[in-house]
Amino acid sequence: MAERMVGKQAPRFTMEAVLADKSFGKVNLEEIMEQDKWTVLFFYPMDFTFVCPTEITAMSDRYDEFEDLDAEVIGVSTDTIHTHLAWINTAREDNGLGELKYPLAADTNHVVAREYGVLIEEEGVALRGLFIINPEGELQYQTVFHNNIGRDVDETLRVLQALQTGGLCPANWRPGQKTL
After folding, report:
1. Among the options 32, 40, 52, 81, which is catalytic?
2. Could you count the other beta carbons within 10 Å of the beta carbon of residue 26?
C-alpha cells in the first residue's frame, strides 16, 4: 500500500545535475530550504523523447514567473548528467532543449524517483510526477500521471500561487481572487 506523502516532510535529496549555465553541479533540497524558497520538483521519463521536451522547455520559458514566486524548479530523470547536457546542447528544432533556466538532475541510481513513488521499477524510468515543497520542507502538492501526457505550466503556477496564499482556495481559484 502506498504511503501518503502530502502534508509530510518531503524526502531529502542531493543529485548531480546540469545547471542552468551548463556546468555540472549538485541540487540539494536542504540548500533550497535554507534559502527560504519553494521547490517545484518534476520527474520525466527519459531524455531525447517526444513529450518531455515540450514540458521541459515550457517550464524554462516561464521560469521567471517561478523565480518571482521564490520557487526553484528542478527537472529529474534517471538519465545521466552527460545525456542531459547532450540534450540541452541540441537545438529545440532538432527535438532538443536548447538553453534552460533551471537544472536537470540525474537520478541514475533511482533512489529519489523511488522515494517519491514515481519509479517504474521494471523500466528504470520515472512517471511524470510533480511535487511542490514549501520552504519548511513539507510536501504541499503532488500529481503523478501517465507518461504520454505533458504537464500544464499554467496549472503548476496557479497551484503554487494558491499554496502561497495560506488560505482556502475554492475550485477554479485564480491569482488575484479572494480566498475563502
Report:
1. 52
2. 14
